[in-house]
Amino acid sequence: MAREYPVEPYRIKAVEPIPVTTRAQRTQALGRAGYNTCLLRADEVTIDLFTDSGTNAMSDRQWAAMMVGDEAYCGSSSFYRLEDTVARYYGYPELIPTHQGRAAENILAQCLIRPGHHIPGNMYFPSTRVHLERNGGIFHDVIIDEAHQPDADVPFKGNVDPDKLHKVIAEVGADNIPLFWIHATVNMAGGQPISLGNLAEVREIADHHGIPVILDAARAVENAWFIKCREPGQADRTVADILRNICDLTDGATMSAKKDSFANIGGWLGVRDPSLAEAARGLVVVYEGMHTYGGMAGRDMEAIATGIEESVREENISARVGQVEYLGEKLLDAGVPVVRPIGGHAVFLDAGAILPNIPRDQFPAQTLIAAIYQVAGVRGVERGAVSAGRDAVTGENHYPELELVRLAIPRRTYTQSHLDAVAAGVIDLYNERHHITGGLRFVHEPPTMRFFQARFEPVNGALL
Fold first, then answer.
1. DSSP string spanning 395-421?
2. pLDDT, tens digit, for every residue of 262-316?
3. Architecture of the domain delimited by 60-311
4. What tens digit of pLDDT does each residue of 368-405 get?
5. pTM given for the model
6. CATH architecture of 23-52+314-458
7. Where in the chain is the domain with CATH 3.40.640.10?
8. Where in the chain is the domain with CATH 3.90.1150.10?
9. Measured between alpha carbons, how far is residue 311 from residues 87, 128, 148 in Å?
10. Are 458 and 440 in contact (CB under 8 A)?
């Protein structure tokens, strides 16, 4: 039974009109976009659940903070406020600002990864994997098996399997592993959290072998909330305290502030090692800008600092995760196959179960999200074989066990009626799914992160 909709801990002060389109208009738009929702224009989308990154609504306090942004090229006071805020809430003493999270990944990868290195992690994320592979690294997925099972209702599907981790270390040697790259939450598994107990076990293994642990902290606040709700002994702790506990078990973090921190742009790399920080600052001035702004305006750093303070408030994170659960449970009640348990930032549809008649090489998830847009005007994103890319050696498609469609909910942006409309549209498509008799094939395939700019055509001439 669907959960009660959470009361939003805010009221609306400004509104933005959204487009309302017909199915015929959406069919034309889908054709122009090559059946890739990434290539749709925003004014062709009614409810946009493509991502929760940079699409959040900022608060009045964030907008006010932007007015005192210090735009000094060197030594901006806004940088020092951000540095202090990150140190207080995340615990990293060395801060390198970047224009967004993948820039931090790029700088960290260039500092630490060399050809022949092996990097274990709890499932890949596309941009992270690209950066480590472009620097010659080889990724090893050491997440628990249940993470690859959509129906497995396990509270911490983001956990690392210690046996898998030990096996990788034994096979390649600790000297060839520059870091463990740990995600909290795990996006590609359905927004699933890692437990504090498991992260502590990873830390112990890392310490034994002298390997640093790097955290993808973009949604670590959501992970902290799940720990509070699901992990024994954590219920009476604050989200801020748990977040700091997570970070204290790591040596550094990459951060896209466009997620938990409510910002529209920005990110950072936080580390403990002064020598690593100095190397990173040498690269940030090459790729991003001066090390005290790193590709961001002072006003953006002010907005992020305020957003960090707001992100750990219990009422904010409770309502945020509650919205996602509300949508997910409405779909589950209607029989739509959804990854369980519901994740922190998005509802993930099990495209393989919804379209079992579509072969993997016709990309069921890409097919499904195109069809959902056509029927409902809702934009999501594929998280399956298209996102996984091709094997760097054989050129064959990667076919991950999970073939998913992600419906990511921006923070403080949509209301209950919007989510009810999304649910109705997805359920309508689910009831029409037998009309989808063929999938999609590439007509243009970029070599890197192909899901952003690829173009497709229906194998059978039309989707629906």
1. -PBP--S--EEEEE--TTT--HHHHHH
2. 999 999 999 999 999 999 999 999 999 999 999 999 999 999 999 999 999 999 9
3. 3-Layer(aba) Sandwich (3.40)
4. 999 999 999 999 999 999 999 998 889 999 999 999 99
5. 0.95
6. Alpha-Beta Complex (3.90)
7. 60-311
8. 23-52+314-458
9. 15, 24, 29
10. yes
